Amino acid sequence: MSIELVAVPANMTPFFQPLDLTINGAAKKFTRNEFVTYYSSTVQKELSSGKCIEDIEVDLKLSTIKPLHAQWLINLYNFFTTTEGHAITLKGWKKAGISTLLDGTTTLGPDDPFKAIYE
């Protein structure tokens, strides 16, 4: 295995972080949707039982949310093992330019492309 070291100028690292480019946003969106589903289904259940909207209280105690969140994380993992999840992951590696380095279609030249910036 050959390792190539490249100096990256300050404030440029986000462009080379595959998780920052695609996965983190998708994970936040997925988890937010799980919470919205929990919250809205709880409200709907209370409304269906005849409760007045002003009297509905959704239980947001940590002891209630923790087990739900654990299940949401399992669901998130399962999502990222699907074809759609794989596509999101691959997109991050492509946006960062890392996938082409790994498959050999692009190589790093002998010169540092950022040399003029940090010297």
Count of DSSP strands: 0
Helix percent reads 55-70%
Tell me the Rg in angstroms: 22 Å
Number of H/I helices = 5
Query: What is the beta-strand fraction?
Result: under 5%
Q: Could you say which structural class the secondary elements and strand pairing correspond to?
A: mainly alpha
Distance between the termini: 30 Å
Order of helices and strands: HHHHH
Q: What multimeric state do the chains show?
A: single chain
Mean pLDDT: 86
Biggest sheet layout? none
Shape: elongated
The stretches of 5 or more residues where confidence is low (pLDDT under 50) are none
Protein name: DDE-1 domain-containing protein
SSE inventory with pairings:
Elements (H helix, E strand, L loop, with lengths): L17 H31 L13 H19 L2 H13 L2 H5 L12 H4 L1
